[in-house]
Amino acid sequence: MLRNWRFYFLIILLLTASLDLLWRIVDLGVFKRSFLLSQGNARSVRDITLNAHRGIIVDRNNEPLAISADVVSVCADPKILSISSEQLQQLAVILGLKPTTITRDILAHKTRDFVYLKRHLAPEIGEQVENLRIRGVFLQQEYQRYYPEGEVTVHPLGFTSVDDQGQEGLELAYDSWLRGISGKKRIVKDRLGNIVEDLGVISAPQPGHNLAISIDRRIQYIAYSELKHAIEQDQAESGSVVILSVKTGEVLASANYPACNPNDRSSLKVACYRNRVVTDLLEPGSTVKPFSIVNALESSKYTPKTLVDTNPGHLKVDKKHVIYDDKHINNGVLTVTGVLQKSSDIGVTKITLSLPPNSLLDVLHRVGFSQTTLSGFPGEAQGVLPQRVQWRPFVLATLSFGYGLSVTPLQLAQAYSILANRGILRPISFLRVDKTEVDGKRVIAQDVADKVLAMLEEVVEGGTGKRAQITGYKIGGKTGTAHLAIAHGYAADKYWSLFAGIAPLSNPQIVAVVVIKNPRGQYRGGLVAAPVFANIINRSLRTLNVAPDNLE
Fold first, then answer.
1. Which of 240, 254, 286, 417 is catalytic?
2. What does the pLDDT look like over 234-253, one tens digit per residue?
3. Could you give the residue ranges of the DSSP H alpha helices within 132-279?
4. CB neighbour list of residue 256: distance below 8 Å, 6 or more residues apart
5. Active site residue 176
6. Final residue of a domain: which of 184, 213, 242?
7. Are residue 190 and residue 251 in the same domain, yes or no?
8. Tens digits of per-residue pLDDT, 173-225?
């Protein structure tokens, strides 16, 4: 009887254990299945980001200016990393790092499961790393931006970060268009971090869009090389050149010096990659005088032949300020054309002070000063004009010959393009415009613009802009020289040297502005900036196959 009791007890115990085990199987396999799967996947299934290819930037002729190249980055998982001293030495040699540097980076991130050892390496270097078969070291596919033209195009293009995101210039302005959308791929890893199964792509990466910009690679190179030569020759601080298409408002070139190579990130300094053409302000000096003459002609009180007496070579304004012409020369009696040709501060002051005080400000505002060009370029400066309530005769006088206001080289080029367009303001574009001519808004009467264009030709033919002459072409333009503004006044021996011009005058195609900051020795715009303009435009007109219009 006792034996039977023991037997049945053992049977009941085994049945209970079996039922408990069966229940556990059902519980884990049915009721907790989703939870257990999620926990397992959390430990073995990983989603890997698939980087999207950034769009290519091309110039107006579809020549590549910015492309993304395939590169690999070497990464490590400090939690599972297992590396021998020999492997560490070999890895350091391949990556061009010190073994202590690799060890320090890993120890600094030992609680993480991901750390970069070195980024943006050639694929063949990645293969060498893979061949070492180091547990916990792996590769990540990435893209690196490459700029074929280097420092020549850094100012309009800008550059991207190490993560291929736009940081400056057009790379920043159109980052969302260029960047694309990253994808994802799901994989299964074992406990050692090795990939044991590829579960496929969850979402495919969508490459960024290509971007066609207005810059002409050939014209950009011409502008940059001539500017660089001039800056080095004149030992100047810096300089800028901007060239616009008259009919479309496109920026054909936007060059500055000094510059830096965006392919070498160690050389990227603010002073070198800032696009001074759109971000830097300056007082334009006598390059403003054509618009003072526009003001005179619009009043109907003056014509190109109206006489202006500049005797005796100086003019007192507000009873305490004395204005002189260049080199204190007495130019005597000049026509309005002669005032512009000789760049007479006295002449333009007398003209402006004889007119309503707000009329000049109205002209300057109409041609785009004190407002952005709406080009869309990041960091574009607006510029400054005096307020109407501040008018005093001397303020108005200095405004008429280019002091007391500030403009960007791009604003100045846009203003001259209005004259080249016979009075029509066209929008500025850093993107390619697939039209031969863009609609605009008339801001100056056509006959007034035509008369000023004729005067600008006289400036180049027999005035201060002689060195801007180009054989075979009619050129119109204006020189400018202005003292650099400093704290509490102006520097006595530092200058802006400028030239703004239009070519060819019979059928204007391009407008260019050249700015040289603080040249040593010669500093007048006609001696420093005008020859640079001539060299750039001479080569540019021939590159663009613009027919000569002055073969007599």
1. 286
2. 999 999 999 999 999 999 99
3. 154-157, 169-173, 175-179, 217-234, 270-273, 276-279
4. 155, 227, 238, 239, 240, 241, 274, 275, 276, 277
5. no
6. 213
7. no
8. 999 999 988 777 666 666 555 665 666 677 777 889 999 999 999 999 999 99
